[in-house]
Amino acid sequence: MKKRIWIGIGAVFAAILAWAGYQQFMAKPRSISALIPADALLIFDSQALQAPVSARAIRTQMPLRKVPVFQEAVQSLERFFYTAADTATARTFLAKKIVRYSLHPISKTQLGFVFYIPIDQNSDQAFIEKIRHPDPAKYRMLARSFSDERIQELVSLTNQSYGTFFATEHFLIGSSSGVLVENVIRTLHKTLPRSEQNIQFRIDADHVAGLSIRPEVMQALFEQPEAKRSLVNLFLPEKLSLQFRQSASRTHLIGYAADDIGNRQDIANIFVDQTPVRMQSGDAIPQNTAVLYHLGLSNPTRFGQSMARVLGSTANESVQERIEKLEEDMPGFFNALGQDVILCRLESASNANRKIIILKAKDVKKLSTEFQNLAFLAGAKGPSTVKTFLQHKLLRVNVAELPASLFSNLFSGFPQSWITQHGNYLIIANGEDVMQDYLQQVDRKAVWANDPRQLGLLNQILRPANFTAFVRMNRSQTTLPVSWPITWRNLLGYSSASLNNLENMVYQASYGNEKVQSTLVLGRSTRQSGSNVLNRLLLRRRVEFNAPLIAAPVVSGNLADGSAQFYAQNNAGQFVLVTPEGDKIVQDTTDGAIRSNVVAADYLSNGHLQYLFMTARKLYIADPNPDARRVKLKGITLPAGIDPSLLLLPRGSRQSNLIALAAHKDGHVYALDRQKKAFIRLIKNPHPGPLLLPFQLIDEGNGMEILALQADGTLHRWHDDGAYVNHFPAKLTFDGVDKPFVSPVLQPAGSTMMQAVTTRGEVLDLHPNGLIAKRSQLYRPIRDGSFRLFPDAAQTNWLLLRTTDTETAILDQQGNLQLDIRGLKPGESSVRYHRLGTGIELISIKSGGFTDIYTLNQRKINDRPIPSDFPVVLQLDEQTGELYILSGISKAVQLFSIRIR
Prior knowledge:
- The chain is of the alpha+beta class.
- It has 17 helices and 50 strands.
- Among the domains are: 28-213, no CATH class; 258-523, no CATH class.
- It is 19% helix and 34% strand.
- InterPro entries: Quino_amine_DH_bsu.
């Protein structure tokens, strides 16, 4: 009996001990990692993040608290503490504390942070009591219970919430979201806690932060909007735990990680026997690169064998078929390849997919020949097209996705390939216009090797690696929130977001047998300007003339670096060259004022660009020679009836002798023929009447098409040999209206749909066959206005324009008001739309003798009007944020600058 009693007592005692042990070791978390809900997208620790930063450091360095996500996190924390207590007290409490932050989804459209602050029950208790009892004249503290924990929420007297928090024995845990705080409490009280990943970061004087991030988040950073099958995620480790340091220049933060290879062994096998190498092609990478991928190869032959095995093992039958066709000749191609394989996505104002592949070669001629052989084996269609541009032979290889067949789907986006040789490089472009733009940049040395900022990034900050992914932030149509989920856009997309502080983001990886060595670089190469110099109009140069000017000045070169020449015409017909030093040199005479836009073309095939423009009777070719400070002018008489207001470059045309196109008053299209040195009629329009300008040229890959509309609604679409595209001409008719249009039909890049707007404000979306797909009526104010499409100078995009004699309203393509300007001078106003790269879009409005420049959100960027008798010329220095304005007045040309953010 006694034995049974003792057994019962022992069982009860064991149960008590087990319950106590469970409460001690299981029911309560054993580390801070166990507090964090499992859905965290990223987790980071920092002590430096809470420290204040000087204004000078913000302009010249890359402080941790100005980095995207880090800034949003610390703002969430400070919004609570700086409200609950005075700033000095809050900073004293946060000083030297290593705070952990985690980012979680709150809803389908919102992300939020949770912060975890270690506390000492003795030294920190007074501060905790202070925030629990805020100033009652300004704030209230609401309290409620949740799973036996006391949650408190700080609100204003108008019920604006500043944050929710609760305290455990060792941590103060808070968030701007009460939902997230409840999720932490659920994790805290789980009966069967999840297996915790005890994330430990090293935080000291050298390591400013530690970051653990999910690979799918990293993939989104470098994802291309048009390539949802991007292989970037395969180059990333399965988990990424980074330790951040400041770079030597303090302009970038560098995070280092060494993670297990995991399921990335296939990618590691591609780089077997490949020693990580530095990128050495800075002299071939253009400055307007928005996204770059680099494969560093120390053994290209071995790489080719590995890549062929990986691509051949895919389940995609079409890819397997392509690889089988190329397999026999691929070794010759890779034998001629050097160490750099670079894919550059160039910035695009029109959201066009503009890509360049730069292949450093051991033998560039052999590499080019081998590439053409592979194209033939892959089934290249039709005869190759050869053109000359800036003394480079451009060859069109008409086979789809050949680069992707050689280097993986990461290199997709090449429906055809244009190739040329440049030094030791084979250059591959996915369009003729892309190749020409690239060669122009190389010709004027606008490459990384000549840019001290990018060269420092290339030589000092980037490490040797097998794979590098580079994104230059805030480039037009590549700003990250455009391609991110709505939750990330809401987190980072507001006007004061830290995304504006970040310019360069780089991920690098090197692969071993067991580890992936990763580097994440965040920072900027450009020094930020102080707010006291923003938007101030500064006069840089003034050049006086003896006679009045008759047209706006013409610019060749770059106003930002001082290399630009510009030309002015006076009423004596003199064509005057103004050098960068301010010298005025009379070059020749013209037969009148310039009436057209100015286009640059390689008309003479002499390795330099010539500048073409029209007066009322002639087309002039200006061939500058900067070394001799001379410009040769050659005039070609225009055929009778040519409209001298518009010149277009025929990019994509199958006729290599065509240089520029112009419209005729009878609706025909004329072309300047290089061989005949005269205008020829390219398109005969059977429907008499002028075309609405600008008509549009569309590169269809296998040739150029011409899209044009006439005022009566006749819609034309021709091939460049003069034949109509199927279903054209089409007729857009409106009962009782003879001429419903005053502006053209335009088709955006990458779309087959077209858009037009009638003078009465009816927007038409058109199918590729010219039939109307959708009609929508724009709002018309009481004082009626005329509507038109309003393209930028390069026809990369358009807005909608509503005008009266004294008012101008700019609308987006959906009809939403962007800018409304009133009080213009009747008959003395001019409106122009400028897309300057880096996402900057401006409207210049000349009224009378002055010009103002506006953003599309109604903000005027010049602090005083710009004197101008003609429309101004704008150029942007992307590195410094300096906007240059060239303006002509009666007897002077003036160069102004404005520093913009």
